[in-house]
Write a structure and sequence with these properties.
Elements lengths: L22 H9 L7 H11 L4 E4 L6 H12 L12 E4 L3 H14 L7 E4 L5 H10 L3 E4 L1 H9 L10 E4 L2 H6 L3 H10 L5 E6 L4 H10 L4 E4 L10 E7 L4 H14 L6 E4 L3 H13 L4 E4 L5 H12 L5 E4 L14 E4 L6 H8 L9 E7 L4 H11 L4 E2 L29 H8 L10 H7 L15 H10 L20 H8 L29
Parallel strand pairs: 1-6, 1-7, 2-4, 2-5, 3-4, 5-6, 8-13, 8-14, 9-11, 9-12, 10-11, 12-13
Helix pairs in contact: 2-3, 3-4, 13-14
């Protein structure tokens, strides 16, 4: 019912057996429980099997990964790879996406005897080198780690037959385009290139024109559109982090059909703060961001997929292409700065025809980002309980009246105070209020220093001298005739010398010099 552009037609519904895939691939697809291809798969697989370049544009969650994995498996049935000379290359922007593609090759290629090498950061070079020495039919990697191996002389790219650039718009956002250009120069010009992206801004179109030769364009949805199965809502909130966290907690608790959810933040620091806050309030939550080591990221993601944790607080590292089929909700704690990221974030729910819900917390400072999102998707998103004009007064916080203290640079001090505002204020017992309510409460006995008449007299004598506190130094005054006072002041007035000049030791002769010696 769909043609290669994704529009409805009068042709009968296509099955995988009609696409020209090999019997081994069809058997693996059937075992996985799939019979009907998605529009992007139906449009991209036949020309890919003809070794044509592909420009695929489809919203996230429509099966882009299988649209290049399945034809690659069929084409790789003939021939074998040689040591350090991979036959195909797949570039992914993140480690999680690369690992997910490797899982797809293992699932659909179970009837093939192919060597699959995964080159990502956070893993030992030695283990990856051993896989390359055996020869890699499929090389799945992030651009940085691939260039590291090439610079170490461990890879020869002249045997690459198929190049896949997945999530091209994310590659652009993450600054990988110069690396991809370097990699493209290492690969033969006669290669077949498969280029996939969920959005197609002008910069990506120019990049595709440089890498592709007479490509087959497969566009199965409106550019930068969102899935119709996802219910989108906006939630008005104030800009303070502690208020946003309270609104988010209340929103989560009100979702009756919430099975699990991904909560997106713009910054890694916000991911850590929100994770700690939700943990303190008793939620089952995990965190995922780029600064975590690879083993922790893999473990957290596996726990979320297995249902061991209900909420996953993540940065945009989890927004692109992660295939977690049954995510019921997505919460945007921060409005994404780049409008394209909104499409990818809410695409984590409502996948494969399932229904989903996406909520975005919006403050007054986010209006320009919201306008860009609505312009991109060409749709007005509904508000949950009134827009920003109906926003109630800001919440009172036990620290809201305190000035924020800066750190060394005067910028970070207030942030810790905001993090602590999640805690309920501790009840403070006022002593004055206790006295008013119970007159029999004994008054605390004041601590009074004992009077020193000598000190009081001296203070009275020196008071006129210290009257001007702002002056640098009071003018010298004549000292009283008391020798004790003079000796005490001499410790601070070392230049006071109005007595007779002593001869030798004067009267202060050391005792050891008075001992009589032997005659």
């Amino acid at each position: 019912m769909f043609d290669r552009t994704g529009t409805e037609t009068d042709f009968p519904l296509t099955t995988f057996s009609d696409l020209g895939l090999s019997q081994k691939v069809l058997s693996a697809v059937t075992d996985a429980g799939y019979t009907i291809p998605t529009p992007i798969q139906a449009g991209a697989i036949p020309p890919a099997l003809q070794r044509r370049d592909i420009l695929g544009i489809a919203q996230t969650g429509t099966g882009k990964t299988a649209s290049f994995v399945l034809p690659m498996l069929t084409l790789l049935e003939k021939g074998r790879a040689r040591a350090r000379m991979p036959r195909t290359l797949i570039l992914e922007p993140t480690r999680e996406l690369a690992a997910q593609v490797a899982e797809n090759f293992e699932k659909y290629g179970k009837n093939h005897k192919l060597n699959i090498a995964l080159l990502i950061g956070g893993v030992s070079f030695d283990e990856q080198d051993r896989k390359l020495e055996r020869g890699a039919d499929v090389l799945i990697c992030t651009p940085g780690r691939l260039l590291d191996h090439c610079e170490r002389g461990k890879l020869l790219m002249t045997g690459v037959e198929i190049l896949v650039i997945d999530e091209a718009d994310r590659m652009l956002d993450m600054g990988f385009i110069p690396d991809i250009e370097r990699i493209a120069k290492l690969i033969p010009f006669t290669r077949q290139t498969l280029f996939f992206s969920a959005t197609m801004p002008p910069e990506i179109q120019k990049l595709a024109d440089r890498f592709l030769q007479n490509p087959e364009r497969v566009e199965v949805s409106v550019r930068s559109s969102t899935a119709l199965t996802v219910t989108q809502r906006l939630v008005a909130t104030h800009g303070k982090d502690y208020e946003k966290r309270a609104v988010l907690r209340d929103l989560i608790q009100k979702q009756e059909e919430l099975k699990n959810a991904i909560i997106f933040c713009n910054r890694k620091l916000d991911v850590a703060d929100l994770f700690r806050s939700l943990s303190r309030h008793g939620f089952s939550v995990g965190a995922l961001h780029g600064d975590m080591d690879q083993s922790s990221r893999t473990k957290t993601l596996a726990s979320f997929k297995d249902g061991q944790i209900q909420l996953l607080v993540a940065s945009d590292v989890a927004a692109r292409g992660l295939d977690i089929p049954d995510v019921s909700h997505v919460f945007n704690f921060d409005v994404p700065i780049h409008a394209e990221d909104y499409v990818h974030r809410i695409g984590r729910t409502g996948r494969a025809g399932r229904s989903g819900a996406a909520f975005t917390l919006v403050s007054k400072r986010d209006t320009k980002f919201l306008d860009a999102i609505e312009k991109l998707i060409d749709k007005q998103i509904e508000w949950q309980n009134g827009d920003l004009s109906a926003l109630p007064a800001p919440m009172e916080s036990h620290e809201s009246s305190k000035p924020e203290r800066g750190g060394r640079d005067g910028k970070r001090g207030g942030r810790r105070n905001e993090r602590d505002r999640d805690h309920a204020p501790r009840p403070v017992s006022s002593h004055k209020s206790d006295i008013k309510s119970d007159d029999t409460v004994a008054q605390p006995e004041p601590i009074i220093a004992k009077a020193d008449p000598v000190r009081a007299e001296r203070k009275a004598e020196t008071k006129p001298q210290n009257a001007g506190r702002n002056s640098n130094r009071p003018a010298p005054q004549p000292y009283p005739a008391n020798d004790d006072n003079r000796d005490r002041r001499n410790r601070y007035r070392r230049d006071h010398d109005d007595g007779p000049t002593p001869i030798g030791f004067g009267e202060d002769i050391p005792a050891f010099m008075l001992i009589a010696g032997k005659a």
